[in-house]
Design goal:
With 278 residues, the protein is α+β, with helices and mostly antiparallel strands. The protein contains 4 helices and 18 strands. Strand 5 and strand 6 form a beta hairpin. The longest helix is centred in the N-terminal third of the chain and has 15 residues. The protein has a single domain, classed as 6-pyruvoyl tetrahydropterin synthase/QueD (Tetrahydropterin Synthase, Chain A), CATH 3.30.479. The strands form 3 sheets. Strands 9, 10, 11, 12, 16, 17 and 18 form a 7-stranded mixed beta sheet that branches.
Length: 278
């Protein structure tokens, strides 16, 4: 007997890709439990399943930087409070991140894919359930997006929750309307500009030298630092909430089209986001 829960939750996180570097991602979570029926005629109560799995993902994967420890050109270390990650691009440029331990998930796999990360999660999650549950299968499904989308990473210093983590991210759709007509050409242009980007806040940038950006800030969870090549970064003058990203895009487009009515619908992962007009 099997119990399934489609779209149980979604996870927004960033991870290190062996070629693309820091990559923001958003995946829907599907779950199948395999087991025997209890005295109530159930494998496990749906409410218990949803709460336990979502809480686990919120703790270990969601809004974290996921680092596959088997990837090439990687080193990492930990002290009592922080995790340090150092990785080299193929051309020798470096990415360095120092964050509180809970902000970086060190995962014993060679590369992050929906399949490899799901396999790693399966063994951890099975321990959460009663004896009636004999097997568990997690699968990750990227949202189907018809149109422009981009992967971005960021960190929100002023956020009280896990969004304060300096390297977490999203895969997001983008819609742009000019005089109430959707402009797919502009959407594709900005999606390409934001492809695999780190959107940084200018006040967090403590150094811009030798083609590298060095970001740092203190937040409630601790001290965060990130250093990576400048050409994979995009600076804005504000915090990088989706509301302010949408406003920034609307303002930039309005400068090029001063006589047009501009509306930007910017998504933050799956099914949520902000609308800005200019």
């Amino acid at each position: 007997m099997k119990l399934f829960v489609d779209n149980l939750t979604n996870v927004d996180f960033s991870y290190l890709h062996p070629h693309r570097g820091l990559l923001g991602e958003s995946w829907l979570v599907q779950l199948v439990l395999d087991g025997s029926l209890n005295d109530q005629g159930m494998i496990c109560d749906f409410g218990i399943v949803k709460k336990a799995v979502k809480q686990w993902f919120d703790t270990y994967i969601d809004h974290a930087l996921v680092v596959p420890t088997g990837m090439p050109r990687l080193s990492h270390s930990q002290d009592d409070t922080h995790t340090m990650v150092n990785w080299l691009y193929a051309d020798g440029r470096a990415l360095n991140c120092r964050s509180p331990k809970q902000a970086i998930a060190l995962v014993g796999i060679p590369e992050v894919t929906p399949h490899t990360l799901a396999d790693w999660c399966n063994a951890k999650l099975l321990e959460l359930f009663p004896d009636e549950v004999k097997g568990l299968s997690i699968s990750f499904v990227p949202e189907r997006i018809d149109g422009a989308s981009y992967h971005y990473s960021h960190g929100l210093q002023q956020h009280d929750g896990n969004c304060q983590r300096i390297a977490h991210g999203h895969r997001s759709a983008l819609e742009i309307y000019i005089d109430d007509q959707r402009d797919e050409q502009l959407e594709a242009l900005w999606a390409k500009r934001f492809e695999d980007i780190y959107i940084g806040t200018r006040d967090h940038l403590i150094s811009d030298a030798d083609g590298m950006h060095h970001y740092a800030y203190a937040a409630p969870q601790g001290a965060f630092e990130l250093k990576l090549p400048a050409d994979v970064c995009y600076l804005i003058d504000t915090e990088t909430t989706v509301e302010l990203i949408a406003r920034h895009l609307a303002d930039q487009i309005k400068r090029d089209l001063p006589d047009a009515a501009v509306m930007v619908k910017a998504f933050e992962g799956v099914g949520k986001g902000a609308i800005a007009e200019a």
